[in-house]
Amino acid sequence: MGERTDMTRSAAVAGYFYSREADALRGEITALMREGAALRERQAPGLAGLFGQGTTLPGGARHPLMVLLPHAGYMYSGAVACAALAGVELPRRLIVLGPSHTGVGHMQGFWPEGAWRTPLGDIPVDAELGKELESLGGGFAPDIACHMREHAIEVLLPFLRFARPDCSILPVTIGMPSAPGGLAKAALALAEVLKRHAGEEGGPREVGLVVSSDMNHFENEAHTRELDEAALRPLLVLDASLLLREVHGRGISMCGALPAALGVMACRALGASHAHLCAHDTSAAASGDTRRVVGYASALVW
Question: Which of 87, 116, 144, 264 is the most exposed place for a label (fewest CB within 10 A)?
Answer without folding.
Answer: 87
